[in-house]
Design a protein that fits this description.
Elements lengths: L4 H8 L12 E7 L4 E10 L2 E10 L2 H14 L4 H4 L4 H7 L8 H21 L42
Helix pairs in contact: 1-2, 2-5, 4-5
C-alpha cells in the first residue's frame, strides 16, 4: 500500500500524542471490532482550542489522521474547528488509499465529539454538531456499530446493524 510522504511523516512522528489532564472536552469514536479507536481531549480558552491531544489504537493511517487533525485545529475557534471534514484531512495528508479513507472519518469525528462534549458541559447543547458517521460516538458500552470497514475482521455493516 502506497502512502504519501505526509502520511508517513505523521505516522512516524505523530504530533500531540497523549491525553490532557482535566480536559474541557473528551471525544472517543470507533469500535474495537474494526481495530480503530480514537480519543481526543481538548482544552478550550476564549472559545478556541488552546490544546489538544490524541490517543489512537489503530493502523498507521489512523495515527497519521489523528496527528493531522490536531495540527489542523490547534488554535482555531471551536466553530471553525468542527467544520474540518474528512476530505480536508485526507487532502492535507496528500491523500489516503481508498480502503483507508474511513480513518479520516474517525479523526474528524473524535474532534467533533470532544467539542460536543465541551458544549454539553458548558450548557450549550444547541451548538452540538452531527458527526460525519454518527454511529461511531462511544457514548456507552452498548455501542456495537462501527465504520463498516471489513478490515481486521470487522464485518459489521455501515448502517450500524450488527445482525
Amino acid at each position: 500500500m502506497n502512502y504519501s510522504d505526509k502520511v508517513m511523516e505523521h505516522f512516524m512522528n505523530p504530533r500531540n500524542v497523549g491525553e490532557l489532564v482535566n480536559p474541557d472536552g473528551i471525544g472517543q469514536v470507533g469500535n474495537i471490532n474494526c481495530g480503530d479507536i480514537m480519543r481526543m481531549t481538548i482544552r478550550v480558552e476564549n472559545n478556541s482550542i488552546a490544546d489538544i491531544r490524541f490517543k489512537t489504537f489503530g493502523c498507521g493511517a489512523a495515527i497519521a489522521v489523528s496527528s493531522m487533525v490536531t495540527e489542523m485545529v490547534l488554535g482555531k475557534p471551536l466553530e471553525e474547528a468542527v467544520c474540518v471534514g474528512r476530505d480536508d484531512v485526507a487532502e492535507a495528508l496528500g491523500g489516503l488509499p481508498a480502503k483507508k479513507l474511513h480513518c479520516s472519518n474517525l479523526g474528524t469525528d473524535a474532534l467533533k465529539a470532544a467539542v460536543n462534549d465541551y458544549w454539553r458541559r458548558a450548557g450549550r447543547p444547541e451548538k452540538v454538531v452531527a458527526l460525519e458517521d454518527e454511529h461511531l460516538e462511544q457514548g456507552s458500552e452498548e455501542t456495537s456499530a462501527c465504520c463498516g470497514s471489513n478490515e481486521r475482521g470487522c464485518g459489521q455493516p455501515s448502517n450500524g446493524d450488527p445482525s
